[in-house]
Write a structure and sequence with these properties.
Order of helices and strands: HEEEHEEHHEEHEEEEEHEHEHEHEE
Distance between the termini: 70 Å
CATH topology: Metallo-beta-lactamase, Chain A
Strand order of the largest sheet: 8-7-5-3-2-1-16-17
Radius of gyration: 22 Å
Strand content: 25-35%
Helix content: 25-40%
CATH superfamily: Ribonuclease Z/Hydroxyacylglutathione hydrolase-like
CATH architecture: 4-Layer Sandwich
Oligomer: single chain
CATH class: Alpha Beta
Bound molecules: zinc ion
Shape: globular
């Protein structure tokens, strides 16, 4: 009798295990889409998932249309956060139109002294749009964190003011579930060194290569610390700056991460599903 009871309990236990593993296996996994929008010689990326949308930079003024097309295609109606890496025109040029056309909950930018703010049409248009929509900029520095449903944005830089827009860029690590993206803006090796000397965890699965692949950044040590599986260079064909730099590209290829370039591939989309990363390119 006892033996039968034990056998029955064992069978029930095994059935329970099978049902539990079936449920766990079929639980919905959060999905995220990160699109590096082809905006020519500038930067723009859209992070999407769990009903949250975050825009990082907005390209040049003429790129706003392309940014809008991507946002509309992904059915983005509002932006939970907009990140301004810095105030150079190739990062904020399209921003005023985005502010005018979409509901934005929060806009962040690196803490910048007034005397270091640029004098440009793009910046004037940005200020005008912000005022019109009563949208104040939240100025950030390293250590600031923002969290959304499954998406976390950690500000790693600036922690000091160098006084040049590129060096004072907001460097933001965005975690989408278990995968992470490092947005470096246009930082130089000087900032990379400071980041390497700090206590921040630079490791990221996907690296947005700094400064459109310029020779001024993406040092070997920085690459080793980030240890990316994929990297994205946002750059236009036949630009006047000779970008991306050949040595920087060779360093990326030599490191062994998969390299994606917007000038050759158009917009680049990463789909994150749990551990899974799938990449697709426009062309
Ligand atoms: Zn730039």
């Amino acid at each position: 009798m006892i033996r039968w009871f034990k056998r029955g309990a064992l069978i029930l236990f095994l059935i329970g295990i099978i049902i539990l593993s079936f449920i766990l296996h079929n639980l919905p996994v959060d999905e995220y889409t990160v699109t590096f929008i082809d905006v020519g010689q500038s930067d723009c990326a859209l992070i999407n998932g769990n009903g949250t949308s975050i825009l990082v930079d907005a390209g040049n003024e003429k790129d706003a249309r392309n940014v809008r097309i991507t946002l509309d295609r992904l059915n983005v109606k509002k932006l939970d956060m907009v990140v301004i890496s810095h105030f150079d025109s190739d990062h904020i040029g399209g921003m005023s139109r985005i502010i005018n056309d979409y509901k934005i909950s929060k806009i962040i930018a690196p803490k910048t002294k007034k005397k270091y703010l640029p004098k440009s049409t793009s910046f004037d248009l940005l200020k005008k749009a912000l005022k019109k929509h009563n949208l104040p900029i939240t100025y950030v520095k390293s250590g600031d964190e923002f969290s959304f449903k499954g998406i976390f944005a950690d500000v790693l830089s600036p922690n000091t003011e160098y006084g040049t827009s590129n060096e004072d860029c907001a460097v933001v690590k965005v975690k989408c579930g278990v995968r992470s993206f490092l947005f470096t803006g246009d930082i130089s090796e000087k900032v990379e060194k400071r980041l390497l000397g700090g206590k921040v965890n630079l490791k990221a699965d996907i690296l947005k290569v700094s400064h459109h692949g310029s020779y001024t950044a993406t040092s070997q040590k920085f690459l080793e610390s980030v240890n990316p599986s994929y990297s994205v260079v946002s750059v236009s064909k036949y630009n006047n700056y000779n970008l991306p730099n050949v040595e920087t590209m060779n360093r990326l290829y030599g490191y062994g991460c998969e390299v994606f370039r917007t000038d050759e591939m158009g917009s680049i989309t990463f789909k994150i599903n749990g551990n899974d990363i799938k990449v697709s390119v426009e062309k």
